Amino acid sequence: MTMKYKNMEELIEIVKKLRSPQGCPWDREQTHDSLRANMLEEAYEAVDAIDDNDVKHLKEELGDVLLQVLLHSQIAQDNGEFTIEDVAEELKDKLIHRHPHVFGNAKIDNPDEVLQAWDKLKAEEKTHRKSAMDGISRSQAALISAQKISKKAVKTGFEWPNEESLYECIFSEFEEFKQAEKEQNKTHMEEEYGDILFALVNLARWNKIDAEQALLKANKKFEKRFRKMEELAVKPLNDYSFEEFDMLWKQAKKELAKAGK
Question: Which of 76, 85, 90, 156 is the most buried (most CB within 10 A)?
Answer without folding.
Answer: 76
